[in-house]
Write a structure and sequence with these properties.
With 197 residues, this protein is an alpha+beta fold. It contains four helices and 14 strands. A seven-stranded antiparallel beta sheet has the order 3-2-6-9-10-5-4, with helices on one face. A three-stranded antiparallel beta sheet has the order 1-13-14, with no helix packed on it. Strands 7-8 form a two-stranded antiparallel ribbon. The two termini are 34 Å apart.
Length: 197
């Protein structure tokens, strides 16, 4: 077994071990709006569920050249954002929004996505996502050059084609996850295992 001391490695070396080892990672496609009204959209794979009571999710947004990315800046300014789940039908369009654009640019203009108004918050959502969460910023945790956004879900939206009796059918959602480099993964084989009593 190889052993690495993160204190003796560069940020990039640590990054490669993290993104290569913590896989697969779900992808949050986040829309936000600046205090001035400029729309922003970006994908993040440092993303997960935090709590179900109350319902909360987290998105970790690293800085770019020492400055907060628009997603983090907007979420802190307005206290609102929408998280969409990335799936096989929208991943290519989502990937377009990962382009390095100047601050304030609207990445949605690079896509064919259409927008819909949210029900509870002022940030619009993307119609082409089968699942989306309207969030209010619950807390932001500063972690060096990273902002961990914890959002309280104030409205769930689930496409009726993947929903039945309170459950989401993963085989119909067809989520896509992030691996390392330019690699992504589909859901793959699913197996069940009972937890010990």
């Amino acid at each position: 077994m190889l052993s690495f001391d993160p204190q003796e490695q560069t940020e990039r070396e640590n990054y490669k071990l993290l993104i290569g080892g913590v896989i697969p990672r779900p992808i949050a496609f986040v829309t936000s709006r600046s205090a001035e009204g400029a729309l922003n959209a970006a994908p993040f794979s440092y993303f997960n569920v935090v709590s179900s009571d109350p319902p909360m999710i987290s998105v970790s947004v690293q800085s770019r050249a020492g400055a907060p990315k628009d997603t983090a800046k907007n979420a802190v300014e307005t206290g609102e954002f929408v998280v969409h789940i990335v799936d096989e039908t929208n991943v290519e369009q989502v990937n377009r929004t990962a382009a390095s654009l100047p601050p304030g640019a609207n990445e949605l203009e690079l896509t064919e996505f259409t927008l819909t108004e949210s029900e509870v918050i002022s940030v619009p959502a993307v119609n082409e996502a089968k699942i989306r969460f309207e969030c209010r910023l619950e807390q932001v945790v500063e972690l060096g050059g990273t902002r961990l956004l914890i959002g309280k879900v104030v409205r769930f939206h689930v496409d009726e084609s993947i929903y039945e009796n309170g459950r989401i059918h993963h085989e119909l959602l067809k989520p896509v996850s992030r691996l390392a480099g330019t690699n992504y993964a589909k859901l793959g084989e699913v197996f069940s295992m009972e937890r010990p009593k």
